Amino acid sequence: MNTSEIIIAGDTAGIEWRLPVLRFKGSDPAAPKVYIQAALHADELPGTALVHFLCERLRQSESAGQIKSDIIVVPHANPIGAAQSHFGELQGRFDLGSRTNFNREFPLISATDRDGLLEKLERLAAVDKLKRQLLHMALGCDLVIDLHCDDESLQYAYIDEAFWPEAADLASAMEMEAVLLSDGESSAFEEAVGFAWKYETREKQSRLPGKLSVTVELRGRRDVYPEMAMKDAEGLWKFLVGRGAIDAAVSLAAFDGPAVPLDNIEMVRAPEAGTVLFHRNIGEQVVEGDILATLITRPGMADGSIEIRAPQAGLIVTRSSERLVRRRADLMKIACKTASKAMRKPGTLED
Fold it and tell me: How many CA atoms lie within 13 Å of 285's alpha carbon, on the beta-carbon side?
C-alpha cells in the first residue's frame, strides 16, 4: 500500500489542508480501477470505520498477490469540514464559508475533460480545490464508491438507473435493505461522476456497463461500531472480488430488497414546528393511514398536537434523529411501490 497526501492551500494565511490517499497497485491492467472515499460529509463516520478495516483486508490480499485492480482509498475525504466546529458541535455537511453542501456543486464535465479539473487550482477556493481533486481521482477509475450515512437509517444506496440492475451485486454483497434508483440530475459527487461518463461521447449514454458510481448510506450517523464496520468492510471486499478487482472466490445471493425510483419515495415532513413523538421506526412496513408520529405544536393545549400519517404503504427507510423540528423538516423517507403524489424536482431528495 502506497500512502501520499494531497496538499490543499487554505483561503487564509498560514492554513493548508492535508488529504491522505491510500493506493494499492493491481497486477492486471484490464481489471476495473476502483475509487473508494468516505466522510465527504465530514461528520458521517461509518464509512471511515469501514475503510479502516477494508484496508486491513486489502493489505492481506496484497500480501497474497491477489489484487488485480488499481485501488484508491480516501479514508476521510473532507479535512475542511472536519475542522468546522461551532460551539463544540462538528458541522460537517455544509461549508461554513460558502454555505454550500460539501456533496453538491461538483463540476459537471465530460470525462474527456478530466485533466482540466486540475488547471489553475490556485485561483479557486479551498473547497473547490478539494472537490476537483476528488473528482479527478474518481474519473480515472471504473468503480466509484462514495460512503455516506443518513440520520437514523437502514443500510441503502442511491444508484443511478444507468447502473441498474448490474449494481445489484453491490446491494447483495453489502446486504442492503433498499435501493433508491436516482435520475442522475444533480451535482452530487456520485452523479457528477456518472454525468462525466454519460457525456464522454457526443451522444448521451443511458447505460454504462462495467461502470458504477454510487452513494452508499451506511445506516445512521451513530452506527459506528467495530462489528458493523468489519461486516460492511467484508461486504465491500466481496463486491470487489465479484467485479474482478481481487483474485479470490465469493458467492453472492440475488438482491431481494426493494429497488424503487426516487419518485416512489414519500418524504414525510413536519407541517408545523414542534416536538416529535415517533410511533414507527426504521425497517417497519406501514400501510396508508398509519400513524407515523405525533407532533406537539402547542404543549399543554387541548388542540396542541398533530397526527402525521402515512400517505401510502411502504418501508420506512430513514427517520430523523431530531425531536424538536422546524416547519417542513424532513421526518422520514418511505420507499413505496407506487409514485408519490407530491411534486419532486429532478435530482436529490435533500439539500
Answer: 5
pLDDT tens sequence across 12-63: 999 999 999 999 999 999 999 999 999 999 999 999 999 999 999 999 999 9
Cell of 3: 500512502
Residue type, 73: V
Q: Nearest Cα to 179, choosing from 291, 97, 262? A: 262
Distance CA 210, CA 69 (A): 14
Which residues, 6 or more positions from 17, have their beta carbon under 8 angstroms from its beta carbon? 7, 8, 10, 79, 80, 83, 126, 130
User: Cell numbers 419532486 label which residue?
Assistant: 344
**Distance spanning both ends of the chain, measured CA to CA:** 36
- Rounded Cα distance between 142 and 144, Å, is 6
Q: How far apart are CA 253 and CA 235, in angstroms?
A: 12
Enter the pTM of the model: 0.97
The three grid cell numbers given for residue 324, joined into one nine-digit string: 424538536
Alpha helices in 212-309 (DSSP H): 226-242
Tell me the CA distances in angstroms from 149 to 40, 48, 223, 241, 286, one per residue in order: 10, 11, 9, 24, 23
Specify the residue for cell string 464509512.
Answer: 47
pLDDT in tens, 225-261: 999 999 999 999 999 999 999 999 999 999 999 999 9
* Residue-wise DSSP of 247-275: S-----PPP-S-EEEGGGEEEEE-SSSEE
